[in-house]
Prior knowledge:
The protein has a domain at 82-283: Class I glutamine amidotransferase (GATase) domain (Rossmann fold), CATH 3.40.50.880. It is 25% helix and 14% strand. The chain has helices at residues 3-13, 94-105, 166-178, 188-194, 210-216, 243-255, 257-267; strands at residues 82-87, 115-121, 127-128, 134-135, 139-140, 149-152, 181-185, 202-203, 221-222, 228-230, 234-237, 282-283. α2 (94-105) runs parallel beside α6 and α6 (243-255) packs antiparallel against α7.
Amino acid sequence: MNRKALLALALTLGLALPGSSCRPREPEETPAPAATPAPAPPPGQAAVTPPTPLGTDLATSVPAAPPAGTPPAADLPRDRPLQAGFLVVDGVYNTELAAPYDVFHHTVFHARPGIQVFTVSPDGKPVTTFEGLKLTPDHSFANAPAIDILVVPSARGSMDKDLQNQALIDWVRRTGGSARHVVSLCDGAFLLAKAGLLDGIPSTTFPDDYQRFSQMFPSLDLRVNVSFVDAGKVLTSQGGAKSYEVAMHLVDKLYGTQVAGGIGHGLLVPWPPDPDTMSPRVVEVPPPNSPGAPAPPAPGQ
């Protein structure tokens, strides 16, 4: 039998020919209707290719729920938002301020009542960031509301000039002492250390300043080469782009993985993070009787 006849027989019986594809046949699908050709552009005008439809509007799209994980904290207030106060002084760095500010602010889109964010400067007067942005703080030390989450971003003077400002250090000590959580970014850890908020607990700071931190505060437990340290009440971060990680972690801790995942979807910050690619971090309970430690159980419990 010649090859032409063999081909006809194979097509009839559904057999595969030597040299033809051995890939299993896909289920037959109804062919899509042919697209209507676009009208030709007027003479002298370039053709414009319409964008591919996204299928959903960004403003109304609902991201898929992330995997189940940490549930919301049981003691969150239900009748008011948590108050997150961001300390801003001249020379504050944009990233350490904006990254956690954005993350905490976006809780209002995924949880009720979420977190209310605001800025506080010593005198309430405008400040200029290290990169040159002009900011008008929401409050001064004198009229700031009670703060549940104190956020201390790094600033140009965090390792020297700001440490000599006794009113600043006293405010950090007093406000941080009464807050539910304290978060420092980059060299903001120096202010927490000066205020005594890192006594007896592990902490970290900007990698280039490990040596200086150890020299200035030799009794403190400095952790190196980690993105952030969660010591219970107090969380310290390397800063920079890592500022997103500590903020996302605290949101997960407070509101649960689903809320954090929704925020991560909007900010393009993967959450939960891939354990194979995530930055090293230290998450641990501090020793008893330290500022970040949970209260000891009552006798008999």
